[in-house]
Design goal:
globular; about 0% strand; 13 helices; two-stranded antiparallel sheet; mainly alpha
Length: about 325
C-alpha cells in the first residue's frame, strides 16, 4: 500500500468492556469477516482512519505518475514507450478508483485533492526520489510496485467493502507493472553491455533502502498499527511485510546478477528468512517532512497541472449545467 504513518486517532485499543453496544456489534462483524459497507454503522475513528489511508493511497498513485512520466519521451524503443504509457495510465486510474472509494465515506475528492495541493496531506515517501536513468524505471516497476503488491494484496481482504473491491483490480494491474519492470531490468542485465549492467546496479543501490522504508517504521515505532489491525484495515505488521519483500526480492536480484547493497544481508537458516541491516529511519522521516530530493518538485508539478487543467473543469461544468437545463425545460 502507498500509505505510511496513518493516524487512527486512537491512543489505546479499547477492551470489549469499554466498547458501546453498537461498537461491540461492529467489532463482531469485523471479527466474523463481514465487510463494512458505506451505510453501515462505523465508529468515527474508523471512518477517519479509512479516509486518511485511502486518500493517501490515492495521492500516491497520482504523484507516482510523475517520476515515470519523466522518461516517456526518452524511452529507448517504441515498445518500451507504449508499455510505460500504459503503466502511467493505470496509475492514474488507480487514483480515481481510490478517490471514489474515499467518497463513499462522506468526503469529496475535490477537498482531498486540495489538501494534497496545499501540502496538508501525505503521499508515499518513495515518490520523492528522482529517476536519473532508464534503469530507475525498471526499479520502480520491480521494487516499488513489487513492494506495493506485497502490501496491497491483503487489502483485498480488508474490512471496508469499497476499498477491498477497488484493490482487486489495482492488484491485478500492479502485478503487470512489477513484471514489466523486472523484464526491463532483465533485458539490461542479460542482453545489455557492461555500462548498462553498471547502470542497473547503481540504480539498485539507490532504490533498495527507500523501497524497504515503504512499509513504514518498525512495529515498535508504529503506534497506529494495533488499532488498524484490530479493525482489519491492516492485516499484517510493517516488519512482517518488509521481511516478505526481502525474502522475495533477494533471489530475483541474484538472478539479475546484482549485488544487494547491504553488507549485513545473510540467510538465517534457523529463522528461514534473510537477516538484513538497520534502516536509516532519519532519512525516511526527513522525506516525510518535505525534505526529500524531489518533495517540492512533485507538489509543484501537481499544482501546475491542476492550474493548467482549470479550463477543462470549467468547460465540463458548463456543459453539465447546459445539459441539466435542457432536461428541465
Amino acid at each position: 500500500m502507498y500509505a505510511q504513518l496513518v493516524e487512527t486517532g486512537v491512543t489505546q485499543v479499547k477492551t470489549a468492556e469499554q466498547l458501546s453496544g453498537a461498537e461491540q456489534a461492529f467489532q463482531r462483524r469485523i471479527d466474523d469477516g463481514i465487510k463494512i459497507e458505506p451505510k453501515d454503522f462505523m465508529p468515527e475513528a474508523y471512518r477517519k482512519t479509512l479516509v486518511r489511508q485511502i486518500s493517501q493511497h490515492a495521492h500516491s498513485e497520482i504523484v507516482g505518475m510523475l517520476p515515470e512520466g519523466n522518461w516517456v519521451t526518452r524511452a529507448p524503443s517504441l515498445k518500451r514507450k507504449a508499455i510505460l504509457l500504459a503503466k502511467i495510465q493505470d496509475e492514474g486510474g488507480h487514483g480515481l478508483y481510490l478517490y471514489s472509494a474515499a467518497e463513499t465515506l462522506g468526503v469529496s475528492r475535490e477537498d482531498l485533492y486540495d489538501d494534497l495541493l496545499a501540502g496538508r496531506a501525505k503521499y508515499s515517501s518513495i515518490f520523492n526520489y528522482p529517476t536519473l536513468t532508464w534503469a530507475d524505471i525498471g526499479m520502480i516497476g520491480w521494487l516499488v510496485d513489487g513492494s506495493a503488491i506485497i502490501n496491497q494484496i491483503p487489502l483485498c481482504r480488508c474490512s471496508y467493502g469499497p476499498y477491498a473491491r477497488a484493490m482487486v483490480r489495482v492488484c491485478k494491474e500492479e502485478s503487470f507493472h512489477q513484471r514489466q519492470g523486472y523484464d526491463l531490468l532483465l533485458a539490461m542485465c542479460k542482453d545489455g553491455n557492461p555500462e548498462q549492467r553498471a547502470m542497473v546496479q547503481e540504480a539498485f543501490n539507490r532504490w533498495w533502502w527507500p523501497a524497504l522504508m515503504m512499509f513504514g517504521p518498525s512495529d515498535a515505532e508504529s503506534t497506529n498499527s494495533t488499532q488498524s489491525m484490530a479493525w482489519k484495515i491492516k492485516l499484517f505488521s510493517n516488519d512482517d511485510l518488509r521481511q516478505k519483500m526481502v525474502d522475495q526480492t533477494v533471489p530475483q536480484a541474484e538472478h539479475l546478477g546484482l549485488t544487494i547493497p547491504d553488507p549485513d544481508l545473510k540467510w538465517n537458516a534457523a529463522r528461514g528468512h534473510y537477516d538484513f541491516g538497520e534502516i536509516d529511519w532519519s532519512e525516511f522521516y526527513a522525506v516525510l517532512k518535505g525534505n526529500g530530493p524531489c518533495n517540492r518538485e512533485r507538489l509543484q508539478a501537481r499544482r501546475d497541472a491542476h492550474k493548467q487543467g482549470a479550463w477543462v473543469r470549467e468547460a465540463m461544468a458548463a456543459y453539465a449545467e447546459k445539459k441539466d437545463a435542457r432536461v428541465a425545460a
